[in-house]
Amino acid sequence: MKEDNELSNDRAAEIGGIIIDQTHAKVNLKKPEVSVVFYETPDTFFVGIDMAGFDLSKRQHRLFGLNTGIRGTVAFSLLKVAEYMKKDANKRLLVDPFCGSGDVVIEATLYTSGFSVNFFNKERFAFRRMHAFSDIDFDAFFAKLDPPAKKERLPIHGCDKELKNVANAEKNAKIAGVGKLAKISRIDLQWLDIKKDKETIDFVVSYAPGLRREQEKEREKMYKELFYQLEFVMKKKGVAVIATEYPDQAKKYAQEYKFTLEKEFLAWQGKKELWVLKWRR
Fold first, then answer.
1. How far apart are CA 180 and CA 125, in angstroms?
2. 272-280 vs 156-160, strand pairing mode
3. Does residue 123 lie within any of the structural domains?
């Protein structure tokens, strides 16, 4: 059995005893066939079975350049804030100008292509080893779920001024199985208007580099250049969603270049505080 940190040992033992009395199950803490999860809030108690056997929020492809990126779940949430929809993503261009380890680009590509985040984790699922499902042909089951592999490149472009970040993003995308579906290239922010035609970008979604607190002048320059460039390359009514640890500077230059702030809220990645800001061109 697996005990949630919010649950006391006494309560876990009590619930475990009830389960054993009802099912006559044997406890094997080292190699359980079924893991039971307990979670308690001030007014509700939950009991469930861990069907996966591993943390579904973790991305197995995130192996390179982790100090430059954000979690896959956070990156996907930024896409949802931007209202980036699968139905029209094939014809609308999304750009991440600070792609880092490629998290936003990979999440957008997985989502748009329909390629599963856990495509390469099929053998790890705990339910495959549960006696209750022993008669199921899981290879056939997954084959029905997996869409045909896409070959054409999607209108998704990750950019970064650092060559090592580009290399890391390309490696992570390849491991995720979508390396050929998105474009990742080295582009310094100040050259974005040279690489992209006027009013061609529909979405900009990115985690802006935090930089150290004492690098205020560098951040000022970065945000000023970002919105100066976006004023030229983004379509009218285009959407920009930026996650940042320094929202005031971002808002300052977005306002200067006539971007309308539609939404802002505080989010967390572990103990790191991130502000999520959404503008419309």
1. 27
2. unpaired
3. no
Residue 248, Ramachandran bin (φ over 0: left; ψ between -120 and 50: alpha; else beta)? alpha
Q: Residue 135: inside a domain, yes or no?
A: no
Nearest to 220 by CA among 202, 197, 244: 244
Q: Give yes or no: residues 35 and 154 share one domain.
A: no
Identify whether 129 is part of a domain: no
* 189 in Cβ contact with 228 (< 8 Å): no
Q: What is the pLDDT of residues 234-256, one digit of tens each?
A: 999 999 999 999 999 999 999 99
Domain tally, the chain:
2
What are the tens digits of pLDDT across the range 19-59?
888 877 788 777 777 888 877 778 887 888 899 999 998 99
Task: Assess whether 17 and 88 both reside in one domain.
Answer: no
The CATH number of the domain holding residue 198 is 3.40.50.150
